[in-house]
């Protein structure tokens, strides 16, 4: 091997101060070339940044935040709509329940009145024959008064009234030249109504024109 092919020796100067500039060296063990110059330290390799590792920009973050805000606003709107619909259904249920309860209450009242009609018939018959006397008369008057004031119970059907098939039930029918329209001539059983509801139609005998 010739001297030209031999590698030149590397001298490492471990002095912290550069003898040429007097400045503190960044690395104490910098290599010195044979001509006395300090060898430059190898620069750290710079790794390239892959496209997928690119940091998100401010515009991307803003767009993402806006999308999340819109999604949350949509969820809130849907929640409010569901709550409104639930509230409406509940209000309708309450109204319907109250209406049904009122109907059932009225139906129950009419059922009780209908059960008392035979008693009221007996009271009316006893009064007609002047047999309603003593404590029983007071009780009968109080019962009729209570039914009238609290439940608007009314007795109807009298001789001489014009026959109305909506509220009267004809059990007998005669003809006479003395009348021009169907007229009640006999009341077999009086009728009862509570308000506009017919509890029992009046059962009557009717005389019509010839």
Which descriptors apply to this entry?
2 helices, alpha+beta, 210 residues, 8 strands, rod-shaped
Blueprint of the fold:
Elements: E1 11-12, E2 31-32, H1 58-128, H2 134-151, E3 153-156, E4 168-176, E5 183-189, E6 191-194, E7 197-200, E8 202-209
Parallel strand pairs: 4-8
Antiparallel strand pairs: 1-2, 3-6, 5-8, 6-7
Structural class: alpha+beta
Uncertain regions spanning at least 5 consecutive residues:
36-44
Cα radius of gyration in angstroms: 57 Å
Main sheet: strands, sense, barrel: 3 strands, antiparallel
Estimate what percentage of residues fall within beta strands. 15-25%
Shape: rod-shaped
Mean pLDDT: 82
Cα separation of the termini: 162 Å
Question: How is the largest sheet built, in terms of strand order?
Answer: 3-6-7
How do the SSEs run, as a string of H and E? EEHHEEEEEE
Number of helices, counting only DSSP H or I runs of 4 residues or more? 2
Annotation, overall tally of beta strands: 8
Structure description:
Helix content is 42%, strand content 19%. It is α+β, with helices and mostly antiparallel strands and 210 residues long. The termini are far apart. It is rod-shaped and about 160 Å long. It has two helices and eight strands. The strands form three sheets. It has a three-stranded antiparallel beta sheet. Helix 1 runs antiparallel to helix 2.
């Amino acid at each position: 091997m010739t001297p030209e092919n031999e590698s030149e020796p590397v001298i490492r100067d471990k002095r912290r101060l550069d003898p040429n500039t007097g400045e503190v060296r960044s690395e104490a063990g910098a290599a010195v070339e044979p001509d006395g110059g300090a060898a430059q330290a190898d620069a750290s390799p710079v790794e390239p940044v892959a496209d997928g590792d690119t940091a998100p920009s401010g515009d991307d973050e803003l767009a993402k935040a806006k999308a999340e805000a819109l999604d949350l606003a949509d969820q809130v709107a849907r929640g409010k709509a569901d709550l409104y619909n639930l509230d409406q259904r509940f209000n309708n249920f309450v109204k319907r329940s109250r209406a049904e309860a009122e109907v059932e209450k009225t139906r129950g009242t009419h059922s009780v009145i209908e059960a008392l009609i035979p008693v009221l018939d007996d009271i009316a018959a006893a009064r007609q024959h002047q047999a309603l006397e003593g404590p029983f008369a007071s009780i009968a008057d109080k019962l009729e008064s209570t039914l009238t004031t609290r439940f608007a119970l009314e007795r109807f059907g009298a001789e001489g009234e014009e026959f109305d098939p909506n509220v009267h039930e004809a059990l007998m029918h005669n003809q006479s030249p003395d009348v021009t329209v169907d007229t009640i001539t006999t009341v077999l059983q009086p009728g009862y109504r509570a308000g506009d509801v017919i509890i029992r139609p009046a059962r009557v005998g009717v005389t019509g024109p010839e």
